Amino acid sequence: NDCAPNATVLAGDSSAVLSNGTCNTDGPNHPAAQCNSGNDFFLNDAWWRVQAPANGTLRVNTCNNSTFDTKLAIYNMGTAPAAFDYDTLNQAGVLVGCNDDGSADCQVNAPFASDLSVNVIQGNWYLIRVATYDVPGNCTVFIDVPEPCSPLPANNATEAEACGSATNNGCNATGEFETISIGSSVLGSFWADAGTRDTDFYRLDVPADTSVSISISSASFVTGLILGGDITVNPCAVQVWGSSNGNCPSTGEACLNPGTYYIFVAPAIFEGLPCGTGAANNYVLEVSGAAANCPDLSDAACIAPGPNNFSLNSDLNAGANGLVRCAAQPAFPACAGGGSGGNKYARSHPAGSIGGTISCVDFGVWSTVRGTNAAGTGCGLFLTDIPLPVTIGVYRDINGGDPTNKIVTPGDGGDLELIEERSVIVPGVAGLQTINFDPPLCVDAAAGDPIVITADFPDLINGQPGVPANAGYQLLAGGNLTDGTSATFIRLDCADGGAYQIAESLGATFTARWVVNVNGDFSGCGTPCPTDLNGDGATGPADLSILLNGWGTTSPDFNGDGTVGPADLSVLLNGWGACP
Hints:
Blueprint: E1 8-10, E2 14-19, E3 43-51, E4 56-61, E5 70-78, E6 95-99, E7 115-120, E8 125-132, E9 138-144, E10 157-158, E11 178-180, E12 185-189, E13 192-193, E14 196-197, E15 200-206, E16 210-218, E17 222-230, E18 237-243, E19 250-256, E20 259-267, E21 282-291, E22 308-311, E23 321-322, E24 327-328, E25 339-340, E26 343-349, E27 357-372, E28 379-383, E29 388-397, E30 416-426, E31 430-442, E32 451-457, E33 473-480, E34 489-492, E35 501-502, E36 513-514, E37 516-521, E38 538-539, H1 541-549, H2 566-574, E39 577-578
Helix pairs in contact: 1-2
């Protein structure tokens, strides 16, 4: 197994001993960033291949059993390995994943051991490559294949929609759904063929705060979502409160306030699963719940809007455009591959425009997937219902100029000081999304500096939890006002100049301004410790002296009766000590 065409065939879960000191190198190099490595090299490689007995996760690792710095790669050979072209190992869609160093637990007894897990498709063959970063040695390779998802769990209800019909397609039709409840276990069917798929919507009425869990068992890869909003509104006005991960079962949960919600179930693929495929067309959706005290999830709008707002242009829906980004865009007809790399955006609000408290931030976004256009003649971007991640930050620009770098450690030369950061999941929309700060975020201390809002989109080509790697998914900043100046600062994995830079400095044609709206009460945060009259962080003798000096006057009047007197003294004594 020194050469890829002579790979050793494995059956099921396996382990193999490797000593690769005399192995040649016959596979391609892969970019260091793609494999979380310090170099591009895969040296002294050895090869195995295995057929996936089920949809699920294939894990290959050298954890705690290696004398050298190992590197791993896995390639999809399809269903006919005898016809596989080994010259395609470096092409998009063939390389499923690669890894240099695994987690700290993987490296306890073997520094620089590797650990790689990828999604695999039942019946496909996968080529496993074990190589070295620099100097060869000895290791044990462990291979763990997914187990078949059979039998499915018992059910107490059956989906009324027959495979191939469209009576339960929710957002993808005219709002149809079936009703379920906590404790339901529904046997359903779905399909995917010729670039489209069946989407099933189940209505769930929640009478009180409830921690809701969903579990979806199927021989197929599954996308499951917990949705809020109204599926009858066009376009579908929903928010994603939870998503499922894993294969059999695919599980997810969300803490839900009283109201109406929908459970969305669909195959994670868009072809290769026509009706009549067999067991792979079936799934069982189980819904359970427990009483809980849930936070307010009404993020579709600002929960508690303040009297002030500041907009860095207007509503995204007025001539929306996606902004410049890093993306791998394979040529037609391989439209479904690629996706977006790591993209970061920033908008700076002028000093003094925002102070007091921020109750919410609206930001423009597109959730998309790359696919073939309706005419079948080219590629395009389409809205996706898979929830995709983004991290939104609120920063203080300490030098008052254009944003350049986030401060990692004090004094490192960065100019953006973190105030607050939130990681969120964005549903399939092209519009504004809202992040609420409850309680409101106090930014009084930064009111004399520009307030910078940032968005960090991760590299979706390499995959994220619940998002297939290199499958065309792109989460894009959304903007408008393409008037020649973007006023939007960017850092892109594919063109990172070491600092934020104005979008058009890259020669970008998409110079739309990223839409950012900030809402709150900019008049001030209020005094968190009103009895601390001298501002030293505690209520004590100095504050008592100030109150006594104002006795009989109008200040400091704690109880609001217009006169400093015994009632105000009582308030001060009750607040005696360190401020909270």
